[in-house]
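#struct-pred

JT: dropping the chains for the assembly here, can someone run the whole complex?
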Amino acid sequence: MGSIAERIALPKRGQRPPGDMRSSRRARARLWDRVMTGVIWGIVIFLAALLLAFVLYALIQGVSMLSLKFVFGADTSGTLVGPFLFNTFYILIASLLICVPIAVFGAVYLVEYARQGVITTVLRFATETLAGVPSIVLALFGFLVFVTNFGSGTRLGFTRIAGILTLVILNLPLMLRVCEDALRSVPRELREASAALGATKYQTIWRVMMPVALPALTTGVILTAGKMIGETAALIYTAGGSAAVNNWFSLDPRLPGATLTIYLYELHAEGVVANAAQIQNGIVALLVIILLVFNLGLRWLAGRISRRLAGATK
Amino acid sequence: MSASSPERENASAREAAILGGDTVNPDYIIKAPGPIKMRTVDLNVYYGSNRAIKDISLQIAERHVTALMGPSGCGKSTFLRALNRMHDMTPSARITGSVFIGDEEIFAPGVDLVHLRQRVGMVFQRPNPFPSSIFENVAYGLRVQGGYTQRQIAERVERSLRSAALWDEVKDRMNASALSLSGGQQQRLCIARALAVEPEVILMDEPASALDPIATLKIEELIDELKQEYTIVIVTHNLQQAARVSQYTGFFLTGNLIEFNLTPDMFARPQDKRTEDFITGRFG
Amino acid sequence: MSIGALAQVRWPFLLGAFIVLVVFSAAGLHIVGGKAWRERMNKASAIAGAAVLIIAMAAILFFVGGSAYQTFTDYHVSLPAFFFGTTWNPDEKQVGALIMILGSITATVLAIAVATPLSVATAMYVTDIAPTWAKRLIQPILELFAGIPSVVYGFLGIQLIVPLVRNTYNGIAGGFLYAGFGVIAAALVLTFMILPTVTTLSIDALNAVPNGLREASLALGATRWQTLWRTLLPAGASGIFTGVILGMGRAIGETLAVAFVIGSNPNSFPIGFSSAYPYIVFRPTSTITVQLFQDFKEAPHGSLNYDAIWTLAFVLLLITLGLVIASRWISSRSAYRVAAE
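RK: done, full complex below.
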C-alpha cells in the first residue's frame, strides 16, 4: 500500500462560477423554497377549510330539523328517524361484538404465535385481497347468501343479522390489520423485559402488551366503527327493508333493519314522503354530529385511557 | 441504607473527583497560534431546559485537524452540530453565544444558511448515501447549487472521488446504486460528496466508529491528506484516533470544555486531573 | 319454525354461528390449555384461518365468475358485444358495458389526478413543514374526511359540487347547456373520499425515509424544498405510489356517493365532442358500481339482466384484485420499507 498521496494526487481547488452568479443562484433556491412552502401551506389550509365548510354546511342545513321527536320518535309516514337511528346502532354494536374479538385474537395470533411460513403469507395475502373487494360486490354476495339463499324457493328476506354478518366480513380485514399494527407498535423491549422477568407469553400479551396497545387499538376500532356507520351499499341489500314502526326497538335480529344511511338514500331516490328534502337535511346533520362525537369524543377518551395507564401523576 | 456508610462516601467522592462539577480552568484552553478559521465565544446549547453545552470558547486552526474527544454524552457532537447550524432542524434547541467563521457571525440574522453549509460541510457517524447512483450522490451538492455544466460536474465528481480515495474502486460502476457499496466505501462516498461542494471546513462526527479497522485506517489516512487543503474538526471517542490524526485536541466532559491543547502536549502532559483520568482510561 | 326447517333454510347463519363458536373455543383453549395443546392449536389455527379465508375468496371468485360466464353461454352475448357495446337495455337484450367501464375509469383517473398532488403536498407538510401544533391537527382532520359516510358525500355532492360544475361549465359556455351531473362531479366527490387514503400512505412513505438523508442533504447546502423534491420524494416514491394504487381501488369501488352525482344513464358517453363552443361536452352517464347497484334490485333471478350484472361484478372484481396485486408488488420493491411485513 503506497502512500495515499501518491495514489490520489490531491489537486488544487477547481473552477466554480463567479461569485455573484453563485449568490444569485442561492437566492433563487431560497425564493423557490419559500414559494413552494407557501403553496403547500396554502393547499393544507384549503383542505382544512373545505372540510370545515362541508361540516358546517351539513349542520346548518339540517340542524333545524333536529328535535328530540325527530331523532328518537317513530311514525308511520316516515318523517321521524328513531327506528333508523336504533337500527344503525344495533347493527354497529352487534358487528363490533363479533368483529373485535375475532380481530384481536387473530392479531395476537399473527403477532405472537405465527411463524414466518407459507401459511402466514397466504393468510396475509388472502386477507388483503378480501379487503380489496369492493363493498358492492360483497353486498350482492351477502344478498345471495343471506337473503335469497342462492335463489332457491325459500326467501329469507332482509334481516339485521344478514347485514351484521356481511358487515363483519367486509370489515374484518381492516380490523385485523388495525389490531395487528397496534400490537406491533408495542416496543420490543417491553416484551423482552416481561419475558426476562419470567412471564409466560400469555401473561406478557395480556398484562403488558394490551394496555400499551390499547390507545392505538381504540383509535383503530373507532375508525372502523365510523366506517361501519357509513356503510350503505352492503346493508341496502341485506338489511334494508323498511323498518317496522311498532316496537321498533325490539332486539330481534330477524327483523329488517334499515339504517339512517339507507333511509337517506331511499329518500333521495324515491322521496315519497312529504318534505323529503327536509328530512334528508336532518339525517345528514344527525350523521355529521354522530361522526363528530365519535371521532373527537372517543379520541379524547383514548387519550384519557392512555394517560391513566402510563401512570400520570396528575 | 445508612447515609454515611464508608462505601457510599467513597463512591460519591470518586464521582466528584471524576466529574468535578462544572469547574473549568480557562488556562487549560490555549489559543491556537496561526490563522484561525472558526471560533466560538461562550457558546451554549440548550435542549429545552437541559444545558448540553456550557459556555464554550475555542478556536479552530486553519488547515489543521482539531479533535474533540470525551466520554459518551459529553456534548461533543452537540458542539460540532452547532458549527454548521444543524440544530436549526431541532425545534427544541436554543443557542446563545457566538460562532465565527473568519469574521462573520453565523447566527446573525439574515445569514444565508445555504451558503454557510456549503462552506462548512459535514460527514456523519453512520454513512447516509442517497438511494441513487454513486455519481449522483457525489454530484448532489453541485446540482443543488445549480450553474454547473454536465462536464464540470463530471470533472468535479471524479476529482472528489479521487480525493476520497474511492475513485479506483468505483470508476467502472458510477451508475451503480450507492447502497451496493460496503460500509467503509459508503463513508468514503459521503466524504467525497462533502468534498464535491469544496467547503472550507469539514466537520466529521465520529466518521469511523461504524466501520471495521481497515476502513478506519483508510479514513484516517484520508484525513491526514485532506488537512493540506481543508480545515477539519473531528469528533471521536477513540483516544488513539485523536492522538494519531489531530494537531489540536479538546477534551469535553458533561458539556464543558475542560482542556484544549496541542495534541502531543495534551497526551503527554494533561493539565486537568479529569483529562488525565480519561486518557489513562479511568472512565469513559 | 321447526328445527329441521330451520336447519334447511337458515344454513348460512348456522355456518356463521359455527365458525364463530370454533374461533372462540380455539381462543379459549389457547388461554386455558397447556403447552402441548397450544402447539397443536397454533398449527391448526393457522391452517384453519388460512383455509377459511381462502375458501371465502375462492367462493366469491368462482361464484361471481361462474355467474358472469352465464351471460355468454345462456344468452349468447358475444364478448365484444359486452365490452364494446354502448347500449345497455337488458329488456331489449342489449348489454353493452362500454359506457360504464369508461365512466368508472374516467372518474377514477380524474379523481387520482386531482387527489395525488393534494395528498403528496399534505404529506410533505406533515412530515417536514408543519409546526408541532399543526401536526396534531392534521390527524383528526384526515380521520374526519375518512369518516364521512358515502351517502353524506353524495348528498354534499349533489348540493354543492353539481351546482359548482354546472355553473362553471355554463359560465364558460355562456348559456345553460349542462346540468352538472357526470364524471366531473363524480371525480370531485371521489377526490375527497380518497384523499385520506393516499395522504396517510404518503405520510408513512415519507416517514420511512431515514432521517440521515434529510441531514445529509441539508448539510450539503440544499434548501428544505430541494431536500423534499430531490431526495425525500424520490426515496418515498414507491410508498406514495402504493397509496395512489389503493386510492384508485377505493375510487373505482365506490358506489353510493357516485350514484348521487353521476346521472345514472348507462347509454350516454361521459365525455363527448361537439363542433360548437366549448367543444367538449359532459353528459350524465354511469359507472360499473352504480349500474350494479341500481339494476340488481329489479333483475329477476336468471334473466339476462341478472347474468349481465354478475359479469359486470366480475369485471370490477378483476380490476380491484389487479390493483391490490400491483400495490403489493410495488411496495415490495421500495428502497425504504414502510412497515416490516
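JT: nice. Residues 35-74 of chain C form the longest helix (40 residues). Residues 1-7 of chain C have pLDDT under 50 and may be disordered.
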